[in-house]
Amino acid sequence: MPDISEYVFLDKNKLDFFVSKLNTRQRVVAPVRKGVKSYAFAEVPSAKDISWKYIPTILPPKKYFMPQYETIQKFDKSKRTWETVVSSEPIVILGVHTCDLAGIEFLNAMMSSAPCDAHYRNRKANITLIGIECLDYCDGSASCAVMKNELPHGGYDLFMTEMKQGFISHVGSDRGRNIASDSRIFTPAKPEHIRELEELRARKKDIFKPEINVSHEELKNLFSQSFESNMWREEMEKRCVSCGNCTNVCPTCYCFDLRDELDLSLTTGERQRVWDSCQNETFAKVASGENFRKKKGLRQRHRYMRKFYYPVEKHGLYGCTGCGRCTRTCMAKISLKETINKLAEEQQNSKEPVLNQ
Amino acid sequence: MTKPRVAFFDFACCEGCQLQVANMGETLLDVLQAIDVVEFREVMSEKSDDYDVAIVEGSITTPHAVERIKEIRRKASVLIAYGSCATIGGVNGMKNNFNLDDIRGSVYGEQARYFETIPTRAIHQVVLVDYFVNGCPVYIPEFVKVLKSALSGIPYRVPDHAVCVECKLNENECMYDKGITCLGPVTKAGCNSWCVNNGNICYGCRGMVTNPAVDGQKDILEKHKIPLAWVENKMNMYNKACEPDREARLNVEKR
User: Fold this and answer.
1) Where are the domains positioned within chain A?
2) Does pLDDT of A120 surpass 90?
3) Do A241 and B162 touch (CB under 8 A)?
4) Which pLDDT does position B1 carry in this prediction?
5) Domain boundary among B87, B122, B151
6) Is residue B156 part of a domain?
7) How far apart are the first and last CA of chain B?
8) What is the domain count for chain B?
9) At B128, which CATH number?
10) What interface predicted TM-score (ipTM) does this complex get?
11) Cα–Cα 20 to 30 A to A237, which of A280, A297, B73, B169?
12) Cβ atoms of residues B90 and B111 within 8 Å
C-alpha cells in the first residue's frame, strides 16, 4: 500500500487555476500540437493550450536542460580573456511522460559524472518537472515496457495520474511538496483515490507487455554479441540515409560540437555548444581527413551500442528509454524494435547446431 | 589597421544575392565597419581595379565570362563565391540539359550567331575559390560568418550533412509527415532550414551532400510512392552543373 501522505488530489475543474498559478512565478512549458501529427514542448499560457494526450514530442524535454544552441563562453582576443557564461531561468515542464523522465534521469547521470557539466547542472537546478502517467501506448513505435519505463521511477517533483474526477498526484521532492501545499488547488488524497490508482496500474499490466523478443536483462548481451552482425555492414549501410534525425530526437543523446563565433569586430566573440550527431558523415572526421566511421552502417552500430551496450557496461544504465522517437522520425523507416528482433533471430540461428556438415 | 578592400561582382544570375546583402539591415553597419566596399554595382556607381577580396555572384556561361573571372581571380587575394549560381551553377545549370545551339537559338533567335555560349559552370569549375556561401539566395547569417572567416584568415567549411539536421534542431514537423516531398535529406545544411522554418520545402538550392545515400533515398521514395524522375527533375533545378564534380569524385574513389 503506497504511503497516502505522499499523494495529493487535483480536481479537474481546478486545472486551469493550477496552470495559471504556476505561470505567475515562472515560464510553464507543456506539450502542444505542432503541425499535422506532431507535438512539441512549448510555452502554455493556460491549461486549454495543453495537449494532455500526446505522442512523444518531436524533440524531448532535454532541450531545456541543454539547448540546441547554447552560449557557454565569451572571449576577448585583445585582452586574452575567457569568461564562462552560465545562464538559466526558472521553468516548469508540465506533462512529461515516464519515458522522458527516464531520459532526463539518464542525462543527469551522464552530466553529473566527472567532469560535471556546470551549464547543464545550473539549468537543471531551475527546472521543475511535473510528470503525467500514460494509460495506454502512444503508438506502435514505443517500447517503454521492455525498457521498464511505462511506470514512474522518480526523477520528478510531482507526478500526475488522470482519474475519473481529477488527477492523483505523487509528491516526489521538496519542490513538489511546495507546489502541492497550495490548499486552494490540491486536497489531501483519499483512500478511494489510492484504490483507483492501484486498479489503474493493475489494468496497465495487461496493456503494457514487452514489445520485443528479448528481455530487458538480455538486451546488453545481445548487443555485445552483435558487434560483427551483417545488420550493420549490409542492411543499415543500405537503408540509412544519415539524416541525423534519430540522434537529434533521442532523449539521451548528448553529443555536441563547439563553435567559436567572432563578432564583426574580429576581437570579441563567443563559444557556442551545438547538438551534434554521430550519424553525420563528418562527426568522426579528423584534421588529416581520416574518418573513423566513414560507413553509414557502422555509424548506426555506434548509435545502437551507445544505447544498449556501452552505457550499461560503464554506468549500469540503458541509454534507451523506449520512447520510440528514433523509429517515428526515421526517414528510412528503420524500426528499433525490428532491428532488435532481427539481431535476436540472428543470434538464435547462429547458436543452433548445424546438422548437415 | 586599414580595412580590406572588397569588390562585389556578378555573372549570370538574378542579382538577388546582392540584394540580400544590400538588404541586410542593421548588421550591414557592422559589416561596413569591417570592410571597405570599392565596387558593388547594385548599390554604388564607383568602380575599382584595386581590391583584396572579390565576392562573386553568378555562374560562368560565356567565353567572355571565363576571361573576366580569371582577371578577377588574378587581382583578388581572396575570392568568395556566393549564391547557388556561383557555388553550384544553380538554375543556370538547367541549360546543360539541352543542346547548346538549340538553347542559343531559342533565346536569341536570328541573332544567335553573335552570342557565343558555353555549358554553365560554377565559379570553382573555372578558377580557384577560397570560400563558398551556398544558397538561393544566400542566408545572411552564413554570409556574415564566411566574411568573418575570410577576414580572420580561417577556413569556412560548408556543413556536409543533411538540412534535416538543422531542421530537427528547429523542431519543424517533417514535410514527409505532412505528405510533402522535400529535398532536405540530400541537401547540404548551413541555411538553418530557412525555407522549412517558413512553411516551404527544401528545393536543394545549396547542392547535394558529398555522399547522398542513393539506395536509402530510393527506398524512401518507393515507400512514399514518389517517382524517382520527379525528384531528379527537382534536383536538376539547382544541381545540374555540378554533375561533372560528382562524376570526377566518384572516379577518384574508384581508383
Assistant:
1) 4-207, 216-348
2) yes
3) yes
4) 65
5) B151
6) no
7) 48
8) 2
9) 3.40.50.700
10) 0.92
11) B169
12) no
Residue B64, domain member (yes or no) = yes
Q: Where does the pLDDT of residue B226 fall: very low under 50, low under 70, confident under 90, or very high at 90 and above? A: confident
DSSP B96: G
Do residues B117 and B184 both lie within one domain? no
3-state secondary structure of B188: strand
Report the candidate in B18, B148, B127 with the shortest Cα–Cα distance to residue B76: B127
Can you tell me the distance from the alpha carbon of B184 to that of B199, in angstroms, rounded to the nearest whole number?
13
How close is the nearest chain A Cα to the Cα of B114, in Å?
46
Is residue B90 located within the same domain as residue B194?
no
Residue B161 near residue B209 (C-beta atoms within 8 A): yes
Band (pLDDT 50/70/90 cuts) for residue B151 is very high
Contact A40 B160 (CB under 8 A): no
What residue type is B232 in one-letter code?
E
Tell me the C-alpha distance between A180 and A272, whole Å. Answer: 38
Among B115, B130, B151, the domain-final residue is B151
- What distance in Å separates the CA atoms of residue A121 and residue A130, rounded to the nearest whole number? 18
Check whether residue B108 and residue B40 sit in a common domain. yes
Contacts of B180 in chain A (CB under 8 A): none
Give the A window 328-347 contacts with B, CB below 8 Å.
329, 331-333
* pLDDT mean across residues, chain A: 95
Does one domain contain both B140 and B176? no
Q: Cα dihedral sign for B150, A285, A60, A121?
A: negative
From residue B6, how far is each of B17, B38, B211 by CA, in Å?
A: 16, 6, 34
Q: Where are the alpha helices (DSSP H) in A30-186?
A: 62-65, 98-112, 118-125, 174-180
Total residues belonging to chain A: 357
Length, in residues, of chain B:
255
Mutating which of B149, B158, B171 best tests the A interface, going by the most A Cβ atoms within 10 A?
A: B171
- Find the DSSP H helices in chain A: 15-25, 62-65, 98-112, 118-125, 174-180, 191-207, 219-225, 230, 237-239, 245-248, 296-308, 310-315, 325-329, 336-351
Could you tell me if residue B40 is inside a domain? yes
Q: Is B157 within a domain?
A: no
Q: Does B123 lie in the same domain as B11? A: yes
Q: Are residues B77 and B176 in the same domain?
A: no
Residue range of the domain that includes B51:
5-151
Instruction: Give the number of other Cβ atoms within 10 Å of residue B78's Cβ.
Output: 17
Q: Using a CB-CB distance cutoff of 8 angstroms, which residues of chain B are in contact with residue A262?
A: 148, 152
